[in-house]
Protein backbone atom coordinates (compact mmCIF):
# COMPACT_ATOMS: atom_id res chain seq x y z
CA UNK A 1 0.00 0.00 0.00
CA UNK A 2 2.73 2.43 1.01
CA UNK A 3 4.77 1.51 -2.00
CA UNK A 4 1.84 2.11 -4.29
CA UNK A 5 1.24 5.51 -2.71
CA UNK A 6 4.89 6.48 -3.17
CA UNK A 7 4.65 5.38 -6.79
CA UNK A 8 1.61 7.62 -7.33
CA UNK A 9 3.32 10.62 -5.70
CA UNK A 10 6.40 10.11 -7.88
CA UNK A 11 4.19 9.98 -10.96
CA UNK A 12 2.45 13.19 -9.93
CA UNK A 13 5.80 14.89 -9.41
CA UNK A 14 7.02 13.79 -12.84
CA UNK A 15 3.95 15.17 -14.59
CA UNK A 16 4.20 18.44 -12.63
CA UNK A 17 7.84 18.82 -13.68
CA UNK A 18 6.91 18.18 -17.30
CA UNK A 19 4.36 21.00 -17.07
CA UNK A 20 6.75 23.65 -15.77
CA UNK A 21 7.63 26.37 -18.25
CA UNK A 22 9.93 24.93 -20.91
CA UNK A 23 13.34 26.33 -21.69
CA UNK A 24 13.36 29.28 -24.11
CA UNK A 25 15.59 30.06 -27.09
CA UNK A 26 15.52 32.61 -29.89
CA UNK A 27 15.33 29.97 -32.61
CA UNK A 28 14.38 26.29 -32.48
CA UNK A 29 15.78 24.40 -35.46
CA UNK A 30 13.96 21.19 -36.20
CA UNK A 31 16.23 18.72 -38.02
CA UNK A 32 19.98 18.22 -37.59
CA UNK A 33 20.92 17.53 -41.21
CA UNK A 34 23.21 19.82 -43.21
CA UNK A 35 20.42 22.39 -43.69
CA UNK A 36 19.54 22.66 -39.99
CA UNK A 37 23.16 22.65 -38.81
CA UNK A 38 24.19 25.30 -41.37
CA UNK A 39 21.30 27.53 -40.26
CA UNK A 40 22.18 26.98 -36.59
CA UNK A 41 25.86 27.86 -37.01
CA UNK A 42 24.99 31.08 -38.87
CA UNK A 43 22.41 32.10 -36.28
CA UNK A 44 24.71 31.33 -33.37
CA UNK A 45 27.40 33.45 -35.04
CA UNK A 46 24.89 36.31 -35.00
CA UNK A 47 24.43 35.76 -31.25
CA UNK A 48 21.02 34.13 -31.43
CA UNK A 49 20.39 31.42 -28.89
CA UNK A 50 19.54 28.25 -30.80
CA UNK A 51 18.60 24.64 -30.18
CA UNK A 52 18.76 22.03 -32.93
CA UNK A 53 16.19 19.35 -32.23
CA UNK A 54 17.01 16.11 -34.05
CA UNK A 55 14.93 12.94 -34.14
CA UNK A 56 17.79 10.51 -34.67
CA UNK A 57 20.57 9.66 -32.22
CA UNK A 58 23.07 11.27 -34.63
CA UNK A 59 23.44 14.38 -36.76
CA UNK A 60 23.62 14.31 -40.57
CA UNK A 61 20.23 13.03 -41.76
CA UNK A 62 20.78 11.93 -45.35
CA UNK A 63 24.58 11.91 -44.85
CA UNK A 64 25.78 8.86 -42.95
CA UNK A 65 29.19 7.23 -42.49
CA UNK A 66 29.09 3.50 -41.84
CA UNK A 67 32.25 2.28 -40.12
CA UNK A 68 33.87 -0.90 -41.41
CA UNK A 69 35.71 -3.47 -39.27
CA UNK A 70 38.92 -2.61 -41.19
CA UNK A 71 38.73 1.00 -39.99
CA UNK A 72 37.42 2.40 -43.26
CA UNK A 73 34.08 4.03 -43.85
CA UNK A 74 31.32 3.73 -46.44
CA UNK A 75 29.03 6.63 -47.20
CA UNK A 76 25.55 5.13 -47.06
CA UNK A 77 23.97 8.45 -48.08
CA UNK A 78 25.47 11.43 -49.91
CA UNK A 79 28.96 10.84 -51.25
CA UNK A 80 30.00 13.10 -54.14
CA UNK A 81 30.62 16.81 -54.65
CA UNK A 82 31.62 18.75 -57.74
CA UNK A 83 32.25 22.12 -59.40
CA UNK A 84 29.68 24.92 -58.91
CA UNK A 85 28.70 23.31 -55.60
CA UNK A 86 30.42 26.32 -54.08
CA UNK A 87 28.88 26.15 -50.60
CA UNK A 88 29.70 22.54 -49.85
CA UNK A 89 33.20 22.98 -51.30
CA UNK A 90 33.97 26.00 -49.15
CA UNK A 91 32.35 24.44 -46.08
CA UNK A 92 34.58 21.37 -46.41
CA UNK A 93 37.59 23.68 -46.62
CA UNK A 94 36.44 25.80 -43.63
CA UNK A 95 35.99 22.65 -41.56
CA UNK A 96 39.47 21.39 -42.46
CA UNK A 97 38.23 18.48 -44.55
CA UNK A 98 40.22 17.40 -47.59
CA UNK A 99 38.75 16.16 -50.84
CA UNK A 100 39.97 13.73 -53.49
CA UNK A 101 38.99 12.89 -57.07
CA UNK A 102 36.48 10.09 -57.53
CA UNK A 103 38.30 7.17 -59.18
CA UNK A 104 37.78 7.69 -62.89
CA UNK A 105 40.68 6.03 -64.72
CA UNK A 106 39.93 3.38 -67.34
CA UNK A 107 36.89 2.41 -69.33
CA UNK A 108 33.17 2.57 -68.57
CA UNK A 109 30.93 -0.46 -68.87
CA UNK A 110 27.70 -0.39 -70.84
CA UNK A 111 25.37 -3.35 -70.25
CA UNK A 112 22.70 -3.16 -72.89
CA UNK A 113 20.34 -5.69 -74.40
CA UNK A 114 22.21 -8.55 -72.72
CA UNK A 115 25.60 -7.47 -74.06
CA UNK A 116 28.59 -5.97 -72.26
CA UNK A 117 30.59 -3.25 -73.99
CA UNK A 118 33.36 -1.06 -72.62
CA UNK A 119 34.21 2.41 -73.80
CA UNK A 120 36.49 5.27 -72.95
CA UNK A 121 35.27 8.61 -71.59
CA UNK A 122 38.69 10.27 -71.72
CA UNK A 123 38.90 12.79 -74.57
CA UNK A 124 36.62 15.39 -76.05
CA UNK A 125 34.46 13.38 -78.48
CA UNK A 126 33.73 10.24 -76.58
CA UNK A 127 30.29 8.72 -76.80
CA UNK A 128 28.64 5.57 -75.50
CA UNK A 129 28.79 2.68 -77.99
CA UNK A 130 25.28 2.83 -79.40
CA UNK A 131 24.20 3.14 -83.04
CA UNK A 132 24.60 6.48 -84.82
CA UNK A 133 20.90 7.29 -85.10
CA UNK A 134 20.43 6.73 -81.38
CA UNK A 135 23.49 8.84 -80.64
CA UNK A 136 22.06 11.69 -82.69
CA UNK A 137 18.76 11.41 -80.82
CA UNK A 138 20.59 11.39 -77.51
CA UNK A 139 22.65 14.46 -78.40
CA UNK A 140 19.65 16.36 -79.78
CA UNK A 141 17.53 15.64 -76.71
CA UNK A 142 20.37 16.68 -74.39
CA UNK A 143 20.86 19.96 -76.26
CA UNK A 144 17.13 20.66 -76.15
CA UNK A 145 16.86 19.95 -72.42
CA UNK A 146 19.81 22.20 -71.68
CA UNK A 147 18.43 25.05 -73.75
CA UNK A 148 15.00 24.82 -72.09
CA UNK A 149 16.69 24.71 -68.68
CA UNK A 150 18.76 27.76 -69.60
CA UNK A 151 15.55 29.81 -69.82
CA UNK A 152 14.42 28.79 -66.36
CA UNK A 153 14.86 31.09 -63.36
CA UNK A 154 16.24 28.63 -60.81
CA UNK A 155 14.68 30.66 -57.96
CA UNK A 156 11.20 30.63 -59.49
CA UNK A 157 10.74 27.98 -62.24
CA UNK A 158 6.96 28.54 -62.14
CA UNK A 159 7.36 32.01 -63.66
CA UNK A 160 8.49 30.68 -67.07
CA UNK A 161 5.99 31.51 -69.86
CA UNK A 162 5.69 27.80 -70.71
CA UNK A 163 5.64 26.66 -67.07
CA UNK A 164 2.05 25.38 -67.15
CA UNK A 165 2.65 23.47 -70.38
CA UNK A 166 5.87 21.90 -69.10
CA UNK A 167 4.34 21.14 -65.71
CA UNK A 168 1.43 19.36 -67.39
CA UNK A 169 3.60 16.55 -68.75
CA UNK A 170 6.04 14.09 -67.30
CA UNK A 171 9.70 13.91 -68.24
CA UNK A 172 8.81 10.41 -69.48
CA UNK A 173 6.22 11.63 -71.97
CA UNK A 174 8.67 14.25 -73.23
CA UNK A 175 11.28 11.48 -73.71
CA UNK A 176 8.72 9.27 -75.49
CA UNK A 177 8.65 11.93 -78.15
CA UNK A 178 12.31 13.04 -78.12
CA UNK A 179 14.00 9.64 -77.88
CA UNK A 180 11.82 6.96 -79.49
CA UNK A 181 14.90 4.79 -80.17
CA UNK A 182 15.37 2.42 -77.23
CA UNK A 183 19.18 2.77 -77.24
CA UNK A 184 18.89 6.52 -76.69
CA UNK A 185 15.99 6.26 -74.26
CA UNK A 186 17.55 3.74 -71.93
CA UNK A 187 20.52 6.04 -71.26
CA UNK A 188 18.08 8.74 -70.14
CA UNK A 189 16.26 6.17 -68.02
CA UNK A 190 19.50 5.14 -66.29
CA UNK A 191 20.52 8.76 -65.73
CA UNK A 192 17.09 9.73 -64.41
CA UNK A 193 16.80 6.88 -61.94
CA UNK A 194 20.31 7.50 -60.62
CA UNK A 195 19.77 11.26 -60.26
CA UNK A 196 16.23 11.32 -58.83
CA UNK A 197 15.61 7.72 -57.70
CA UNK A 198 12.37 8.17 -59.60
CA UNK A 199 11.30 7.01 -63.07
CA UNK A 200 10.92 9.54 -65.91
CA UNK A 201 7.15 8.89 -65.75
CA UNK A 202 7.13 10.07 -62.10
CA UNK A 203 8.64 13.51 -62.72
CA UNK A 204 7.12 16.73 -63.99
CA UNK A 205 9.01 18.00 -67.06
CA UNK A 206 9.11 21.49 -65.50
CA UNK A 207 10.58 20.04 -62.31
CA UNK A 208 13.20 18.11 -64.32
CA UNK A 209 14.16 21.32 -66.15
CA UNK A 210 14.33 23.22 -62.84
CA UNK A 211 16.61 20.52 -61.45
CA UNK A 212 18.88 20.87 -64.50
CA UNK A 213 18.85 24.66 -64.10
CA UNK A 214 19.81 24.14 -60.46
CA UNK A 215 22.90 22.11 -61.42
CA UNK A 216 25.04 25.22 -61.58
CA UNK A 217 25.45 28.47 -59.69
CA UNK A 218 24.73 32.20 -60.06
CA UNK A 219 27.35 32.53 -62.82
CA UNK A 220 27.43 29.06 -64.43
CA UNK A 221 24.17 27.74 -65.89
CA UNK A 222 23.15 24.20 -65.02
CA UNK A 223 23.35 21.38 -67.55
CA UNK A 224 22.14 17.79 -67.63
CA UNK A 225 25.73 16.64 -68.13
CA UNK A 226 26.82 18.30 -64.89
CA UNK A 227 24.29 16.09 -63.08
CA UNK A 228 25.55 12.89 -64.72
CA UNK A 229 29.29 13.48 -65.13
CA UNK A 230 32.04 12.22 -62.89
CA UNK A 231 35.01 14.41 -63.97
CA UNK A 232 33.75 18.01 -63.93
CA UNK A 233 30.28 16.98 -62.74
CA UNK A 234 28.33 16.20 -59.58
CA UNK A 235 30.37 13.01 -59.00
CA UNK A 236 33.76 14.76 -59.42
CA UNK A 237 35.16 14.51 -55.89
CA UNK A 238 34.74 12.93 -52.48
CA UNK A 239 35.37 14.14 -48.93
CA UNK A 240 38.26 12.60 -47.02
CA UNK A 241 36.84 10.70 -44.04
CA UNK A 242 33.32 10.71 -45.46
CA UNK A 243 30.63 13.34 -45.91
CA UNK A 244 29.11 12.82 -42.47
CA UNK A 245 32.16 14.65 -41.12
CA UNK A 246 30.64 17.82 -42.62
CA UNK A 247 27.71 17.40 -40.23
CA UNK A 248 29.79 16.19 -37.29
CA UNK A 249 32.20 19.13 -37.54
CA UNK A 250 29.36 21.64 -37.95
CA UNK A 251 27.80 20.16 -34.81
CA UNK A 252 31.11 20.47 -32.93
CA UNK A 253 31.44 24.06 -34.07
CA UNK A 254 27.94 24.80 -32.80
CA UNK A 255 28.52 22.92 -29.54
CA UNK A 256 26.68 19.75 -28.61
CA UNK A 257 24.91 21.61 -25.80
CA UNK A 258 22.92 23.33 -28.56
CA UNK A 259 21.81 20.04 -30.09
CA UNK A 260 19.20 17.70 -28.69
CA UNK A 261 19.44 14.19 -30.18
CA UNK A 262 16.84 11.40 -30.10
CA UNK A 263 14.05 13.94 -29.69
CA UNK A 264 11.59 13.76 -32.61
CA UNK A 265 9.45 16.89 -32.78
CA UNK A 266 5.73 16.11 -32.75
CA UNK A 267 3.91 19.36 -32.16
CA UNK A 268 4.52 23.05 -32.85
CA UNK A 269 2.07 25.42 -31.24
CA UNK A 270 1.69 29.19 -31.53
CA UNK A 271 2.00 30.94 -28.14
CA UNK A 272 2.19 34.63 -27.24
CA UNK A 273 5.99 34.90 -27.46
CA UNK A 274 6.39 32.68 -30.51
CA UNK A 275 6.07 28.91 -30.52
CA UNK A 276 6.10 25.98 -28.17
CA UNK A 277 7.95 23.09 -29.75
CA UNK A 278 7.21 19.70 -28.25
CA UNK A 279 9.38 16.69 -28.97
CA UNK A 280 9.53 13.25 -27.38
CA UNK A 281 11.38 14.02 -24.15
CA UNK A 282 11.74 17.78 -24.71
CA UNK A 283 9.67 20.95 -24.76
CA UNK A 284 11.02 24.34 -25.74
CA UNK A 285 9.77 27.86 -26.29
CA UNK A 286 11.22 29.70 -29.29
CA UNK A 287 10.61 33.11 -30.82
CA UNK A 288 11.08 31.61 -34.29
CA UNK A 289 11.22 28.10 -35.70
CA UNK A 290 13.20 26.64 -38.61
CA UNK A 291 11.91 23.42 -40.16
CA UNK A 292 14.96 21.85 -41.82
CA UNK A 293 13.89 18.64 -43.52
CA UNK A 294 12.15 17.40 -46.66
CA UNK A 295 8.54 18.61 -47.11
CA UNK A 296 6.97 15.15 -46.66
CA UNK A 297 8.78 14.72 -43.32
CA UNK A 298 7.77 18.24 -42.24
CA UNK A 299 4.16 17.23 -42.89
CA UNK A 300 4.32 14.60 -40.15
CA UNK A 301 4.59 17.33 -37.51
CA UNK A 302 1.36 18.70 -36.05
CA UNK A 303 1.16 22.51 -36.40
CA UNK A 304 -1.27 24.54 -34.33
CA UNK A 305 -2.79 26.54 -35.92
CA UNK A 306 -2.46 24.59 -39.15
CA UNK A 307 -0.12 26.00 -41.80
CA UNK A 308 -1.55 27.89 -44.78
CA UNK A 309 -3.16 25.53 -47.28
CA UNK A 310 -0.60 26.27 -50.00
CA UNK A 311 2.18 24.96 -47.74
CA UNK A 312 0.31 21.99 -46.37
CA UNK A 313 -0.87 20.95 -49.82
CA UNK A 314 2.68 21.29 -51.16
CA UNK A 315 3.85 18.85 -48.50
CA UNK A 316 1.04 16.46 -49.49
CA UNK A 317 2.31 16.42 -53.08
CA UNK A 318 6.10 15.91 -52.97
CA UNK A 319 7.02 12.23 -52.58
CA UNK A 320 10.50 11.03 -51.69
CA UNK A 321 12.50 9.14 -54.32
CA UNK A 322 12.95 5.40 -53.72
CA UNK A 323 16.62 4.92 -53.01
CA UNK A 324 19.12 2.42 -51.67
CA UNK A 325 22.81 1.76 -51.87
CA UNK A 326 24.46 -1.66 -51.96
CA UNK A 327 28.22 -1.52 -51.47
CA UNK A 328 30.18 -4.74 -51.96
CA UNK A 329 33.62 -4.85 -50.34
CA UNK A 330 36.58 -6.71 -51.84
CA UNK A 331 40.22 -7.19 -50.84
CA UNK A 332 41.27 -5.04 -53.79
CA UNK A 333 39.60 -2.76 -56.37
CA UNK A 334 40.30 -5.50 -58.94
CA UNK A 335 38.41 -3.77 -61.77
CA UNK A 336 41.13 -1.11 -61.84
CA UNK A 337 43.71 -3.75 -62.88
CA UNK A 338 41.30 -4.83 -65.60
CA UNK A 339 41.34 -1.29 -67.04
CA UNK A 340 37.89 -0.32 -65.73
CA UNK A 341 36.93 2.80 -63.79
CA UNK A 342 34.15 1.00 -61.93
CA UNK A 343 31.32 2.93 -63.59
CA UNK A 344 28.63 0.90 -65.31
CA UNK A 345 25.32 1.89 -66.88
CA UNK A 346 22.78 -0.85 -67.50
CA UNK A 347 19.28 -1.42 -68.87
CA UNK A 348 18.56 -4.42 -66.63
CA UNK A 349 19.16 -5.69 -63.12
CA UNK A 350 18.54 -4.33 -59.64
CA UNK A 351 21.65 -2.10 -60.00
CA UNK A 352 21.77 0.06 -63.12
CA UNK A 353 24.51 2.45 -62.14
CA UNK A 354 27.76 1.83 -60.25
CA UNK A 355 30.76 3.74 -58.91
CA UNK A 356 34.15 2.89 -57.46
CA UNK A 357 33.67 3.82 -53.83
CA UNK A 358 37.05 2.57 -52.61
CA UNK A 359 39.10 4.68 -50.19
CA UNK A 360 41.49 7.27 -51.57
CA UNK A 361 44.52 4.98 -51.16
CA UNK A 362 42.78 2.05 -52.87
CA UNK A 363 43.80 -0.22 -49.98
CA UNK A 364 40.60 -2.24 -50.43
CA UNK A 365 37.82 -2.34 -53.01
CA UNK A 366 34.34 -0.91 -52.58
CA UNK A 367 31.87 -1.25 -55.46
CA UNK A 368 28.82 0.96 -55.06
CA UNK A 369 25.57 -0.03 -56.74
CA UNK A 370 22.62 2.33 -56.71
CA UNK A 371 19.23 0.67 -56.24
CA UNK A 372 16.75 3.22 -57.44
CA UNK A 373 13.11 3.90 -58.31
CA UNK A 374 11.19 0.82 -59.56
CA UNK A 375 14.10 -1.46 -58.58
CA UNK A 376 14.12 -0.19 -54.99
CA UNK A 377 10.33 -0.38 -54.74
CA UNK A 378 10.55 -4.06 -55.74
CA UNK A 379 13.11 -4.75 -53.03
CA UNK A 380 12.05 -2.49 -50.15
CA UNK A 381 10.39 -5.40 -48.35
CA UNK A 382 12.85 -8.15 -49.37
CA UNK A 383 15.63 -9.52 -47.17
CA UNK A 384 19.21 -8.24 -47.39
CA UNK A 385 20.28 -11.69 -48.58
CA UNK A 386 17.86 -11.48 -51.51
CA UNK A 387 19.28 -8.06 -52.39
CA UNK A 388 22.89 -9.26 -52.18
CA UNK A 389 22.13 -12.23 -54.46
CA UNK A 390 20.67 -9.91 -57.11
CA UNK A 391 23.37 -7.25 -56.82
CA UNK A 392 26.19 -9.75 -57.12
CA UNK A 393 24.70 -11.08 -60.38
CA UNK A 394 24.79 -7.56 -61.81
CA UNK A 395 28.34 -6.89 -60.57
CA UNK A 396 29.54 -10.14 -62.22
CA UNK A 397 27.87 -9.08 -65.48
CA UNK A 398 29.55 -5.69 -65.34
CA UNK A 399 32.97 -6.51 -63.83
CA UNK A 400 33.51 -10.23 -64.34
CA UNK A 401 33.75 -13.30 -62.09
CA UNK A 402 36.06 -11.64 -59.54
CA UNK A 403 33.00 -9.68 -58.40
CA UNK A 404 31.30 -12.90 -57.28
CA UNK A 405 32.77 -13.07 -53.77
CA UNK A 406 32.64 -9.84 -51.77
CA UNK A 407 34.20 -10.03 -48.30
CA UNK A 408 31.34 -8.01 -46.82
CA UNK A 409 28.52 -5.59 -47.61
CA UNK A 410 26.97 -2.30 -46.62
CA UNK A 411 23.31 -2.09 -47.58
CA UNK A 412 21.24 0.97 -46.80
CA UNK A 413 17.59 1.35 -47.79
CA UNK A 414 16.54 4.95 -47.24
CA UNK A 415 12.87 4.15 -47.96
CA UNK A 416 12.76 2.20 -44.70
CA UNK A 417 14.37 4.93 -42.59
CA UNK A 418 11.80 6.36 -40.20
CA UNK A 419 13.17 9.89 -40.38
CA UNK A 420 13.91 9.96 -44.16
CA UNK A 421 11.30 7.71 -45.86
CA UNK A 422 13.29 7.69 -49.11
CA UNK A 423 15.91 9.73 -50.90
CA UNK A 424 17.87 11.47 -52.25
CA UNK A 425 15.20 14.16 -52.56
CA UNK A 426 11.46 14.84 -52.50
CA UNK A 427 10.53 15.43 -56.16
CA UNK A 428 7.61 17.09 -57.94
CA UNK A 429 5.17 15.16 -60.13
CA UNK A 430 3.19 17.21 -62.71
CA UNK A 431 1.05 20.09 -61.52
CA UNK A 432 2.82 20.79 -58.24
CA UNK A 433 5.49 23.41 -58.97
CA UNK A 434 3.15 25.77 -60.85
CA UNK A 435 0.48 25.60 -58.12
CA UNK A 436 2.47 25.19 -54.90
CA UNK A 437 6.11 25.95 -55.82
CA UNK A 438 6.37 29.30 -54.01
CA UNK A 439 5.52 27.52 -50.71
CA UNK A 440 8.82 25.61 -50.86
CA UNK A 441 10.63 28.66 -49.46
CA UNK A 442 7.95 30.94 -48.09
CA UNK A 443 7.96 31.23 -44.31
CA UNK A 444 4.85 31.86 -42.22
CA UNK A 445 4.62 33.97 -39.04
CA UNK A 446 8.00 33.04 -37.64
CA UNK A 447 8.15 29.52 -39.06
CA UNK A 448 10.82 29.18 -41.76
CA UNK A 449 11.47 26.32 -44.18
CA UNK A 450 14.91 24.99 -45.08
CA UNK A 451 16.09 21.68 -46.54
CA UNK A 452 17.71 20.84 -49.86
CA UNK A 453 14.29 20.77 -51.58
CA UNK A 454 14.01 24.53 -51.04
CA UNK A 455 17.36 25.48 -52.59
CA UNK A 456 17.72 27.55 -55.78
CA UNK A 457 20.95 25.76 -56.76
CA UNK A 458 21.78 22.07 -56.31
CA UNK A 459 18.33 21.05 -55.14
CA UNK A 460 18.60 17.52 -53.85
CA UNK A 461 22.29 17.77 -53.01
CA UNK A 462 24.34 18.59 -49.90
CA UNK A 463 25.24 21.93 -51.48
CA UNK A 464 21.54 22.80 -51.79
CA UNK A 465 20.94 21.81 -48.16
CA UNK A 466 23.71 24.18 -47.00
CA UNK A 467 22.45 27.00 -49.24
CA UNK A 468 18.94 26.57 -47.82
CA UNK A 469 20.25 26.71 -44.25
CA UNK A 470 22.14 29.90 -44.94
CA UNK A 471 19.13 31.46 -46.68
CA UNK A 472 16.83 30.68 -43.78
CA UNK A 473 19.31 32.07 -41.24
CA UNK A 474 19.33 35.35 -43.15
CA UNK A 475 15.53 35.31 -43.21
CA UNK A 476 15.34 34.78 -39.44
CA UNK A 477 17.80 37.61 -38.79
CA UNK A 478 15.87 39.97 -41.06
CA UNK A 479 12.61 39.28 -39.26
CA UNK A 480 13.83 39.38 -35.64
C1 LIG B 1 21.54 7.38 -51.05
C2 LIG B 1 21.75 8.86 -51.19
C3 LIG B 1 22.77 9.32 -51.98
C4 LIG B 1 23.00 10.69 -52.12
N1 LIG B 1 24.07 11.10 -52.83
C5 LIG B 1 24.41 12.41 -52.82
C6 LIG B 1 25.65 12.84 -53.36
O1 LIG B 1 26.44 12.03 -53.87
N2 LIG B 1 25.95 14.17 -53.29
C7 LIG B 1 25.11 15.07 -52.70
O2 LIG B 1 25.45 16.25 -52.63
N3 LIG B 1 23.93 14.68 -52.18
C8 LIG B 1 23.56 13.38 -52.21
N4 LIG B 1 22.41 12.97 -51.60
C9 LIG B 1 21.45 14.00 -51.10
C10 LIG B 1 21.88 14.61 -49.78
O3 LIG B 1 22.12 13.61 -48.85
C11 LIG B 1 20.76 15.53 -49.28
O4 LIG B 1 20.44 16.48 -50.28
C12 LIG B 1 21.12 16.35 -48.03
O5 LIG B 1 21.87 15.59 -47.13
C13 LIG B 1 19.81 16.84 -47.39
O6 LIG B 1 20.08 17.59 -46.20
P1 LIG B 1 18.88 18.27 -45.40
O7 LIG B 1 19.46 18.87 -44.20
O8 LIG B 1 18.10 19.12 -46.34
O9 LIG B 1 17.88 17.08 -45.03
P2 LIG B 1 18.17 15.79 -44.09
O10 LIG B 1 19.57 15.36 -44.20
O11 LIG B 1 17.12 14.81 -44.45
O12 LIG B 1 17.94 16.35 -42.63
C14 LIG B 1 16.69 16.37 -42.02
C15 LIG B 1 16.86 15.97 -40.58
O13 LIG B 1 15.61 16.09 -39.90
C16 LIG B 1 15.47 15.02 -39.02
N5 LIG B 1 14.05 14.87 -38.72
C17 LIG B 1 13.07 14.35 -39.49
N6 LIG B 1 11.88 14.45 -38.85
C18 LIG B 1 12.11 15.05 -37.66
C19 LIG B 1 11.30 15.44 -36.56
N7 LIG B 1 9.97 15.23 -36.56
N8 LIG B 1 11.88 16.02 -35.50
C20 LIG B 1 13.21 16.25 -35.49
N9 LIG B 1 14.04 15.92 -36.50
C21 LIG B 1 13.49 15.32 -37.57
C22 LIG B 1 16.09 13.85 -39.75
O14 LIG B 1 16.46 12.82 -38.87
C23 LIG B 1 17.29 14.52 -40.41
O15 LIG B 1 18.43 14.47 -39.59
C24 LIG B 1 22.16 11.61 -51.45
C25 LIG B 1 21.12 11.14 -50.65
C26 LIG B 1 20.91 9.78 -50.52
C27 LIG B 1 19.79 9.29 -49.63
C1 LIG C 1 28.21 38.66 -30.45
O1 LIG C 1 28.56 38.86 -29.09
C2 LIG C 1 29.94 39.05 -28.88
C3 LIG C 1 30.21 39.06 -27.38
O2 LIG C 1 29.21 39.77 -26.69
C4 LIG C 1 30.38 40.32 -29.58
O3 LIG C 1 31.76 40.53 -29.42
C5 LIG C 1 30.07 40.19 -31.08
O4 LIG C 1 30.36 41.41 -31.74
C6 LIG C 1 28.61 39.85 -31.30
N1 LIG C 1 28.41 39.55 -32.70
C7 LIG C 1 27.33 39.97 -33.39
C8 LIG C 1 27.28 39.56 -34.85
O5 LIG C 1 26.44 40.62 -32.90
C1 LIG D 1 30.36 29.13 -60.02
O1 LIG D 1 31.13 27.97 -60.26
C2 LIG D 1 32.31 28.24 -61.00
C3 LIG D 1 32.96 26.89 -61.31
O2 LIG D 1 33.19 26.14 -60.15
C4 LIG D 1 33.20 29.16 -60.20
O3 LIG D 1 34.37 29.46 -60.93
C5 LIG D 1 32.45 30.46 -59.88
O4 LIG D 1 33.22 31.27 -59.04
C6 LIG D 1 31.13 30.12 -59.18
N1 LIG D 1 30.34 31.33 -59.04
C7 LIG D 1 29.96 31.80 -57.86
C8 LIG D 1 29.07 32.99 -57.88
O5 LIG D 1 30.32 31.31 -56.81
C1 LIG E 1 18.84 -6.78 -78.90
O1 LIG E 1 19.38 -8.04 -79.19
C2 LIG E 1 18.62 -8.83 -80.11
C3 LIG E 1 19.30 -10.17 -80.32
O2 LIG E 1 19.99 -10.59 -79.20
C4 LIG E 1 18.49 -8.10 -81.41
O3 LIG E 1 17.65 -8.82 -82.29
C5 LIG E 1 17.93 -6.71 -81.20
O4 LIG E 1 17.94 -5.98 -82.40
C6 LIG E 1 18.74 -5.94 -80.15
N1 LIG E 1 18.12 -4.67 -79.89
C7 LIG E 1 18.80 -3.52 -79.82
C8 LIG E 1 17.99 -2.30 -79.50
O5 LIG E 1 20.00 -3.45 -79.96
C1 LIG F 1 14.09 35.07 -60.54
O1 LIG F 1 13.10 34.92 -59.55
C2 LIG F 1 13.35 35.62 -58.36
C3 LIG F 1 12.30 35.21 -57.35
O2 LIG F 1 11.02 35.45 -57.86
C4 LIG F 1 13.39 37.10 -58.65
O3 LIG F 1 13.69 37.81 -57.46
C5 LIG F 1 14.46 37.40 -59.69
O4 LIG F 1 14.44 38.73 -60.06
C6 LIG F 1 14.25 36.52 -60.92
N1 LIG F 1 15.41 36.67 -61.81
C7 LIG F 1 15.28 36.98 -63.08
C8 LIG F 1 16.55 37.07 -63.86
O5 LIG F 1 14.20 37.18 -63.60
UniProtKB/TrEMBL annotation:
<keyword id="KW-0274">FAD</keyword>
<feature type="binding site">
    <location>
        <position position="265"/>
    </location>
    <ligand>
        <name>FAD</name>
    </ligand>
</feature>
<feature type="binding site">
    <location>
        <position position="453"/>
    </location>
    <ligand>
        <name>FAD</name>
    </ligand>
</feature>
<dbReference type="InterPro" id="IPR036188">
    <property type="entry name" value="FAD/NAD-bd_sf"/>
</dbReference>
<dbReference type="GO" id="GO:0097621">
    <property type="term" value="F:monoamine oxidase activity"/>
</dbReference>
<dbReference type="InterPro" id="IPR001613">
    <property type="entry name" value="Flavin_amine_oxidase"/>
</dbReference>
<feature type="domain" description="Amine oxidase">
    <location>
        <begin position="34"/>
        <end position="477"/>
    </location>
</feature>
<keyword id="KW-0285">Flavoprotein</keyword>
<dbReference type="InterPro" id="IPR002937">
    <property type="entry name" value="Amino_oxidase"/>
</dbReference>
<keyword id="KW-0732">Signal</keyword>
<feature type="signal peptide">
    <location>
        <begin position="1"/>
        <end position="18"/>
    </location>
</feature>
<feature type="binding site">
    <location>
        <position position="370"/>
    </location>
    <ligand>
        <name>substrate</name>
    </ligand>
</feature>
<feature type="binding site">
    <location>
        <begin position="54"/>
        <end position="55"/>
    </location>
    <ligand>
        <name>FAD</name>
    </ligand>
</feature>
<protein>
    <recommendedName>
        <fullName>Amine oxidase</fullName>
        <ecNumber>1.4.3.-</ecNumber>
    </recommendedName>
</protein>
<comment type="similarity">
    <text>Belongs to the flavin monoamine oxidase family.</text>
</comment>
<dbReference type="Pfam" id="PF01593">
    <property type="entry name" value="Amino_oxidase"/>
</dbReference>
<dbReference type="InterPro" id="IPR050703">
    <property type="entry name" value="Flavin_MAO"/>
</dbReference>
<keyword id="KW-0560">Oxidoreductase</keyword>
Amino acid sequence: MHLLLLWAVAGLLRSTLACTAPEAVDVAIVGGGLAGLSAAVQLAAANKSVMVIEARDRVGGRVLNVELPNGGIIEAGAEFIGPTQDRVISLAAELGLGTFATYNTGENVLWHNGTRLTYSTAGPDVAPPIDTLSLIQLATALAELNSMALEINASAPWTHPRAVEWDSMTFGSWLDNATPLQSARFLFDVATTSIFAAEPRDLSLLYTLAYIAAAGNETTPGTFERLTATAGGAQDRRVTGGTQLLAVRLAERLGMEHISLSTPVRHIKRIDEGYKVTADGLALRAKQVVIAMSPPLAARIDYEPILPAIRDQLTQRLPMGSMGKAVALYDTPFWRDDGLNGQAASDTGIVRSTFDSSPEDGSYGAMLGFIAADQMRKFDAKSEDEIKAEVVKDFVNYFGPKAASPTSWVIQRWDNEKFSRGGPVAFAPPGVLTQHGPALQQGFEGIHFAGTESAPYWIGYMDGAIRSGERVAKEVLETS
